[in-house]
Amino acid sequence: xxxxxxxxxxxxxxxxxxxxxxxxxxxxxxxxxxxxxxxxxxxxxxxxxxxxxxxxxxxxxxxxxxxxxxxxxxxxxxxxxxxxxxxxxxxxxxxxxxxxxxxxxxxxxxxxxxxxxxxxxxxxxxxxxxxxxxxxxxxxxxxxxxxxxxxxxxxxxxxxxxxxxxxxxxxxxxxxxxxxxxxxxxxxxxxxxxxxxxxxxxxxxxxxxxxxxxxxxxxxxxxxxxxxxxxxxxxxxxxxxxxxxxxxxxxxxxxxxxxxxxxxxxxxxxxxxxxxxxxxxxxxxxxxxxxxxxxxxxxxxxxxxxxxxxxxxxxxxxxxxxxxxx
Amino acid sequence: xxxxxxxxxxxxxxxxxxxxxxxxxxxxxxxxxxxxxxxxxxxxxxxxxxxxxxxxxxxxxxxxxxxxxxxxxxxxxxxxxxxxxxxxxxxxxxxxxxxxxxxxxxxxxxxxxxxxxxxxxxxxxxxxxxxxxxxxxxxxxxxxxxxxxxxxxxxxxxxxxxxxxxxxxxxxxxxxxxxxxxxxxxxxxxxxxxxxxxxxxxxxxxxxxxxxxxxxxxxxxxxxxxxxxxxxxxxxxxxxxxxxxxxxxxxxxxxxxxxxxxxxxxxxxxxxxxxxxxxxxxxxxxxxxxxxxxxxxxxxxxxxxxxxxxxxxxxxxxxxxxxxxxxxxxxxxxxxx
Lengths: 326, 337
Ligand SMILES: Nc1ncnc2c1ncn2[C@@H]1O[C@H](COP(=O)(O)OP(=O)(O)OP(=O)(O)O)[C@@H](O)[C@H]1O
Ligand SMILES: Nc1ncnc2c1ncn2[C@@H]1O[C@H](COP(=O)(O)OP(=O)(O)OP(=O)(O)O)[C@@H](O)[C@H]1O
Ligand code: SF4
Ligand SMILES: [Mg+2]
Ligand SMILES: [Mg+2]
Description:
The structure holds two protein chains of two kinds.
Chain A: E1 13-26, E2 30-44, E3 49-54, H1 60-67, E4 75-80, E5 83-84, H2 90-93, E6 97-100, H3 114-124, H4 131-144, H5 161-173, E7 179-183, H6 191-208, E8 211-215, H7 219-225, E9 228-233, E10 236-242, H8 243-248, H9 253-260, H10 267-272, H11 303-307, E11 313-314, E12 320-321
Chain B: E1 5-18, E2 21-34, E3 38-43, H1 49-57, E4 64-73, E5 76-77, H2 83-93, E6 94-97, H3 101-104, H4 111-122, H5 127-140, H6 146-149, H7 159-171, E7 177-181, H8 189-206, E8 209-213, H9 217-223, E9 226-231, E10 234-239, H10 241-246, H11 251-258, H12 298-302, E11 308-309, E12 315-316, H13 319-327
The complex binds adenosine-5'-triphosphate (2 copies), iron/sulfur cluster and magnesium ion (MG) (2 copies).
């Protein structure tokens, strides 16, 4: 932690050198830190969407959870509207910082009705004037995410995967937050409802200046919704750039392979597309490779890559890349 | 090789009883599954894809039941099988990868324990052999240091890693039929590509048939031999990937394809299908999609469109498509059993 760190007042959310280590039992007595996030820094302006992509298990959810302090970070500084986010301040910030959880099943209490799931944050933050007002707000939220208002009294387990995901979104929107971590928030939706929800996220952004950290595996969706995109690999950011720039000119070898693997919704391209298949295994976050985390699978790796960790450097117009050879 | 139909679903109806009335989740779907082939199912969220899968496995929630129809496994109607026989069917002959990896893994047992139990339940492997198989399967689905990882609990795994554990569990028993309900939505595209390769590989090697439910039209385009599009618990269109993507005939399918974000639509608003999803408590009399359809005619309100062959030979249940065919003078209304 750097108590002297001065946050930039232009940013809504600022993250400096975030580290999140989990102790994992190895052997009888040993405990090895699993470095799920290891020195991550980024900032998001009001009304901006930052896309966060990367290999499964690279630490995206961990970053999102640490941001809104569902995890207590091992180290690093997080600021919201210039205020340090810590155990003391988080209580007052919860209303403004919300999260749509990746797993729509385990994050909803199956014994609660949809009405109460969506209404709970309204209750906690006392955000209604009367019972009718509460109900109106809930029905309005359900409509926004394309849920049938007639289902308000049903229990969460009676909904399909995509319907539950929309309950989670409605719940996160209930307190009218300024910042939302969307962790795979649209992955369980068919493309039409997905389009509807994405349009809704964008409308909220235009009208109220809501900012998003948008974590997703679907790179077409991330490209569409994000102003900037950050690519993560094994707990570290390896590339960040404006959305169009990243898609047109990916520089980091990992980003290149990631973009080449996108399955295209077109049978001809899907069957003939040229993928850069990654050689070798994903290294374990318990045993990070020395130097660049990607070097064990990189086609361009040299001796230097094993020795020293490359830092993010600006390649022009804020296109940041952490690679020795690219 | 002769094409062997391993599973036939015939006019399946499945409903849930709720205090608001009967929720008709599946309303007469039929399909044949061929050994060694991949059947892709896409459709609206809530259109009955998972419920169809659960009906085949007979693992519906307590308030749900199969109302009518047959499910034929190698010619035998398994809806008539006793629970003891079904237990054998699940896992050994037919495995399912669930849409929700967290609730299908037990949080209080280690990953290794759960994998080994599944292996012991469905194969003859015991003791060290079962353990080795568990490690081998984890390695196969790309979990690093599997010997260490099997000692961990589900909450210590990321979403995608839990999904891979589920896939390992389903494949460990080498079933005839694999039902994969959104198997790769929690995975990044590189691992997804790897898992899809693995599924194709095993399918070719073992002659396994796969039912693949997914919203990812890219995955479907790449994997499926045949595609079924569902809306409101019914099949609205079926054909090859080329049929569905290049020559969609049903208005719902057309709307679905229009909603995909693509490089050409960047910076523009996406174009979802307008209107609200169907209320299964109160199914429309005619076409289920009618209330949202821009091309709807009077007949759409009144009569259910039958599945009809299009000019290019695939099937669609849409009056507008039938009219186009009639205008071309080639209608052959062919009602599916
Ligand atoms: N509570 C925890 N205890 C121990 N390890 C954890 C915990 N939560 C996450 N991890 C580990 O931290 C790493 C990062 O996990 P995280 O869930 O952040 O990944 P992710 O990028 O969100 O992946 P996915 O795309 O699969 O959701 C993984 O190796 C995971 O096993
Ligand atoms: N236990 C239940 N009680 C009442 N209704 C239910 C129950 N389970 C499912 N349903 C309803 O049945 C319909 C079909 O659900 P199903 O899970 O099959 O949808 P799906 O096509 O798999 O959707 P998704 O793509 O969102 O997973 C949904 O409208 C759902 O609300
Ligand atoms: S049958 Fe009629 S309402 Fe249904 S999709 Fe076709 S045109 Fe539209
Ligand atoms: Mg995650
Ligand atoms: Mg489903």
